[in-house]
Specification:
Blueprint: E1 14-17, E2 22-25, E3 30-31, H1 35-61, E4 72-75, E5 110-120, E6 125-129, E7 132-134, E8 139-145, E9 152-160, E10 163-172, E11 178-184, E12 190-199, E13 208-218
Amino acid sequence: MPPFAPSSTPTPTWVSTPQTGSYTDKAGRPRRGGGQVGFTIAGLCIIMGALLLIFVYIISLQLPPTSASIGAVSPVATQPTNTTHAQPTAAASPTVIPSPTPAMPGQQYISNAQMASSIDKNTATPIQPTTTFTVGQPVYVTFLVHPNGQAGEVCLAWYLNGKFTSNFSFAIPNIASTTAYSYTYYHASGSAYVELSWSTSANCSNALLAQRVNFTVRS
């Protein structure tokens, strides 16, 4: 109950003002009204916002796999090896050698492609080599790049059950040799592979296929 005016009697007389939905006493002071309607509208807005977020989340689950890969390049010696880097889990995880592939036109530029579920991102070397992954797990591929005296572009294309899913590319400077990696995610299971190509064009228009590595994605 609002305080009484000094000149009023203990029981104030209220005058209705229908145009604004509020009330005033004889002294002209407002008395708040209609608060319940405001709370109802605010509650409906919150509920509608929550439903919208749920809808967006459901739609995102239906999207095809997209590449989240970034090309991390670490300049190393001409003949980089893994022996100088500690790999705590290497002893428990056998090294996986990719299946031999036929000679490819760009294999002099990219070699030693390997799949892994975990890598050392500072050196682009595998920590947990594997050719079996689960849906939603990052799928890494590491490799050596030999620019052979010219700058170029590494071009990657990812496939699942024979169908293209995503691609990614990044530039390599004119250096002697370097290790590099890329990765992606799959939202469905099946037989998969990644193709690595070398190009002297930024848009990979003249790419030469260098490596193809097979792997499996399970539910």
